[in-house]
Write a structure and sequence with these properties.
The chain has 14 helices and 16 strands. The protein is α+β, with helices and mostly antiparallel strands and 534 residues long. The strands form four sheets. A five-stranded antiparallel sheet has the order 6-5-9-8-7, sandwiched between helices. α12 packs antiparallel against α13.
């Protein structure tokens, strides 16, 4: 029973309603009994007064005449009423009649009620009191009458409360608890994922219960929609996961995962091939830290990881790896990106071909296509580096030789530009052979060449090299068609000794010295007169 009270709305509602009706009924019944008793007592008192009024005239004659027989008839008439317990008639202060009822058992010991005394006036003069009538109520009879009236009222109220409570319980069960219980049972059996819905109870189409059912059905529709979306997302996730797994395992790009300290967590086969590691399923011999795989670039790799963790954004860098045993040297591009759970996702690509292409492009940008010597850009870069190095170390000197071919125009005019190109190529090779491998040889354009002699400390060395260049260039040059071409070289030398001269200053000085050599008869060298002697 206790379990039913706690689990059933109908049982709990019925019990609560009956308890409330009973409590209210008891309160109102108590009030009704008290009011009924008071009203019944008042009614009895009024009846006794009416009886006295009825016999007033007869009692007046009996008392005026002191007629005992007539007074006794008055007393007998009054005592015939069951609510009268005793009647005494007085005339002139003398009792002339008395009638009394034998009290019921148990009533004799009770305190008798106060008598009701009425003065009797003369039938001829209402101002003259000739006697009295003392009427003692029958308390037991009055009490019985009051109890009878009270019982009747109590019975009516009890019946009313019972029927009212039953009606309220029936209404609550019929219109509230029973529909809710049915909805609850239906909900318990409902399989929302199949799209099942609740039926609105009959008669509740427009009330709160009907609205509740509609809300539940709307929630079921939403749940079915959400479940459908979730199934779709789960299926899509599985497809994407398989796709990612396929890409991860078969991609040419190395993919790996690190913790925030740079420790290896997982990697794909392409990553293993990059670094000559075991397959991902066999991690024996795997370095615990990614930076260790970069060899001499270990510190740079650690810095890259730290930057990714601190800045929480993608970072990347190219590394030139020495190559694991059996693997060639290569360039790799490493890109690190922060992901969830404080982890780092990395991607490694082989960029060796790209680097080679970049190096080739850079080499082409600083190389003279005809002679394969350094061009003007290469010369200016090399000159700037040498000036910077000499400025930091004043004891370190270098010399700029600027050379222009003599009689080169005659070769072009006599044998054509193709022959001139052949002469330029031969001169380039002879210049390279005339200087050290550490020295720079370049062609500025046309028949103008430059040589940078690094670390030269005496004038005699410069003169010897300049003479060697002039002698080598002056040798006859075989050209197409069995012909021979003869050219000479005018050389101007400018020395940089760590002073304040700029690149343009040094080029201007060497050019002026070369012009002096040409003016002096060609095929010879000259030093710039304003430079510091060697």
């Amino acid at each position: 029973m206790a379990s039913l009270f706690h689990t059933s709305i109908a049982a709990r509602s019925t019990a609560v309603i009956l308890a409330i009706v009973g409590l209210v009924g008891i309160v109102f019944l108590s009030i009704a009994i008290a009011l009924t008793e008071r009203q019944a007592g008042a009614d009895q008192q009024a009846r006794l007064n009416e009886l006295l009024e009825t016999v007033q005239r007869t009692a007046s004659i009996a008392c005026f005449l002191s007629d005992r027989q007539l007074a006794d008839e008055v007393a007998l008439g009054l005592i015939s009423n069951r609510t009268v317990g005793a009647v005494t008639v007085y005339a002139g202060g003398e009792r002339i009649a008395h009638r009394g009822r034998t009290p019921a058992a148990g009533a004799a010991s009770a305190k008798p009620p106060e008598p009701l005394v009425r003065n009797v006036v003369s039938p001829f003069d209402r101002g003259d009191i000739v006697g009295q009538i003392a009427l003692v109520p029958d308390a037991a009879e009055i009490r019985n009458n009051v109890l009878a009236a009270t019982r009747f009222i109590s019975l009516l109220l009890a019946v009313q409360m019972v029927f009212t409570g039953a009606a309220v319980v029936a209404v609550v069960i019929r219109f509230i608890t029973r529909p809710i219980s049915r909805i609850s049972a239906r909900l318990h059996e409902l399989r929302a994922e199949t799209g099942q819905k609740l039926e609105i109870p009959r008669g509740s189409e427009t009330d709160e219960i009907g609205q509740l059912v509609r809300d539940v059905n709307a929630m079921v529709d939403y749940l079915v929609s959400i479940l459908g979306e979730e199934r779709g997302l789960r299926l899509l996730h599985e497809i994407e996961e398989k796709k990612f797994r396929t890409i991860f395992e078969h991609a040419d790009t190395g993919i790996f995962l690190l913790d925030e300290s740079g420790r290896m967590i997982s990697w794909n086969p392409a990553f293993a091939q990059f670094f000559g590691l075991p397959e991902p399923s066999a991690s024996q011999g795997l370095p615990s830290m990614f930076a260790d795989l970069l060899g001499e670039h270990r510190d740079e790799g650690a810095m890259l990881i730290s930057r990714c963790v601190v800045e929480r954004k993608s970072t990347g860098q190219d590394f030139r790896l020495g190559g694991a045993p059996g693997l060639p040297k290569r360039w790799v591009s490493v890109v690190l990106s922060p992901v969830e759970d404080n982890r780092i996702q990395g991607v490694v690509n082989d960029v060796t071909e790209r680097k080679r292409a970049e190096e080739a492009a850079q080499e082409l940008a600083v190389t003279d296509r005809l002679t394969s010597l350094g061009n003007r850009l290469a010369f200016e870069r090399r000159l700037e580096r040498m000036i910077d190095a000499s400025s930091r170390a004043p004891v370190r000197r270098f010399v700029l030789l600027m050379m222009d071919l003599d009689w080169f125009k005659q070769v072009n005019d006599s044998y054509g530009h193709h022959a001139g190109d052949e002469v330029l190529v031969v001169v380039a090779r002879r210049l390279e052979n005339a200087v050290r491998k550490s020295d720079f040889v370049g062609r500025l354009g046309g028949d103008e060449f430059v040589v940078l002699l690094d670390g030269v400390h005496d004038r005699e060395s410069v003169e010897r090299i300049a003479s060697k260049i002039i002698s080598a260039v002056g040798e006859p040059i075989a050209i197409t068609g069995g012909m021979r071409a003869n050219v000479g070289a005018s050389v101007g030398a400018a020395v940089f000794d760590g002073g304040t001269a700029t690149k343009d200053d040094l080029i201007r000085r060497a050019d002026e010295a070369m012009y002096q050599a040409k003016q002096s008869g060609r095929n010879r060298y000259r030093f710039y007169e304003d430079t510091v002697s060697l």
